[in-house]
Amino acid sequence: MKTKREIKCIEIIVIFCKHLFNGLLVPITDHTVSMPRVRPKLKTTAAINGHKYSSLWFALKATQNYRHLRYKPSINYCRNYHTMNGFTDENMDTNTQRMKQLKVNELNDDILSGKSVTNEAPENSFKVIDVNDKSVLLVVTDEDKVLELNYGSVRLTLLSHNYDLHINGYSISVDKCVDLSAIFDHTIVIRYRLNENQRQPIDSIRDKLQTLGVTDVETIINQLEENSCFILLEKITMNSLLYLETLPNFKPTNLKLIKDWFNMRSIAANNYNSHLVWDRLFDELKLKNNDMIVVTGGTNVGKSSLIRHMINRYLFERNVDDYSECLYLDTDPGQSEFSTAGQLSLSKIKEPMLSSTVLNVINDKPLMSCSVAATTPSKAARLYMSSISQLIHFFRKDLQSKGPLFINTMGWTRDLGLALLTDIIKIALPTHLIQINSTIEPKNNFQFDLTSDAIKRFNGYRFDSFDRNRHLKYKLSIIESNNRRVKKNQMTRDLQQLSYMAKMPDILYKPIYAMNPYKLLWSKVYVKIQLDSRFAPKLSLDVLNCSWIHLCRLDPKFIDKYYVEMGIKFIDSIDRNECFGSAIIRGIDFQNKCFYILSPESREILESVNCIVRPSGISIPDKIMLEQLNYSSTSKLPYIFNKS
């Protein structure tokens, strides 16, 4: 005769299989019975940290007490936005209606680059006046259009004091300037609005045009309308951009460029309504300095774009304070924002985010980074959660923050991804959580609303339903996304690596075989190799040679065991670490027992490195290797094999 525990396990498996065949994976246990710690031995398994787990075990561990959430009347699983967002009873009807209107027309992970079908404006909707070979003057009159910068790195200055410009949440007034960068299929949208309180006669712009050195000013003035908007664009030149210009897809190939250094066009304003939704949501949140905001959703729904918009809006509204700032915690190792792939980072933002993600690794240095040795946490889930805890602890204990913290999460909404997200929420204890649901691919959405009551009853990867729940209470906001754009993650990772290496001053005119490398002695560092497949220890140096590595520092007390192979200290696993950057192993010297590495990091930083990590799924971009052919006619180039 079967025990109650066995009967309950059978019931769980039967219901799970029922939902699995229906294409819906949901929590399946009753709230009156605690979840038994079962790990069924199925053929379908996944290896994490050296241990094998079944896909069913992931589902049972990550999801719990669904019936309690779905059928308890006080929680109301149906779309009760009043309950989910914590509005007061007096404003229930008004706020419910307002939150239901938060439907995003388009959201994506590059600043508003995913667009619905548009009615493109005529080519003469704005005028371009040449000032010199590196600057132009834009004259815009149609307020029903927006300007789309789809190529170029420019400094934008508003010359008209009767207009306000709004760029991805950030606003600028007369004689103020911002730097914009739109490269590698990245676009920036500029809205301009007439300020009725500061009307400007057309003659008032005459002096500014003469100061800029514009020729034939009188002819231009006679052709302008009374309420024209004048925008000055100047070309920005950086050494790193000079190297990136040599890469394919740096500029759009399917557009006729206005100038060789920038391109812009007019688009109907109603095709970019997403920023209106973001502004409305920002007004609802009423963010404070100590707030912590977690943004969740499936892949390619616009989590990064939403965070950038909110950061820009926050910085603009507090621009009167010299200490206005925001913090950004990136928890997606596959789509990093301020570091190369395979790292989690905590960054401080003091300037508006108006550049491509590819350039963030050049312009911004994270306060702290941790290597997770892979582009997905499924390869090292324990290290991933340990890194999250380390970064949040650093934020709370070591930083005197004067702004809110935004946490960008992965787009993994099932199984282990849901379990890890549950732990992130329980560790961070946020004040706000934003859930973005896709209307294009609903299968990638979470199958329930991520209320604080729901998260409390879920088992995560490290914490069960009874851990860290006492202070877990946040305001949930739900919006929808119609984004159709599919982001090419591998291409983005390669571009970030190339941008990171572009900080090396010699890369513009030297191949990698001609650059002076740093010497890293074997005796000074530990080596961690994270690969998907096993290999013989004697092949370790072959795996390391010509590879992309992370430069880390480990606390010696967390190094339990290591083994020595050919004079190199290898470790099987790492826990907490601080990552200083990345490098390329240019060569290995057996006689002097050292690695030769290429990295844009300084010698002082390299002296602090005591561990190098060979991450899984991250290799040297082909562009760095193949560009050697441009410098040498010989076929005997390092690491290049010619089949002919």
Helix/strand-derived class? alpha+beta
* Terminal CA distance: 72 Å
Number of domains: 4
Approximately what portion of the residues adopt beta-strand conformation? 15-25%
Q: In the CATH classification, which architecture of the largest domain applies?
A: 3-Layer(aba) Sandwich
Q: Helicity range of the residues?
A: 25-40%
Largest sheet descriptor: 9 strands, antiparallel
Uncertain segments are 20-122
Give a count of the beta strands, DSSP E runs of length 2 or more.
26
Q: CATH class of the largest domain, please?
A: Alpha Beta
Mean pLDDT comes to: 76
Verbal overview:
The chain has 4 domains: 4-71, no CATH class; 102-109 and 273-481, Rossmann fold; 123-271, Jelly Rolls (Sandwich); 509-630, Elongation Factor Tu (Ef-tu), domain 3 (Beta Barrel), CATH 2.40.30. Helices cover 25% and strands 24% of the residues. The protein is built from 18 helices and 26 strands. The strands form 4 sheets. Strands 3, 4, 5, 6, 7, 8, 9, 10 and 11 form a 9-stranded antiparallel beta sheet that branches. Helix 2 packs parallel to helix 13, helix 9 (274-285) packs across helix 10 (303-317) and helix 12 (381-397) packs parallel to helix 13 (415-428). The longest helix is centred in the N-terminal third of the chain and has 18 residues, at 4-21. Residues 20-122 have low confidence and may be disordered.
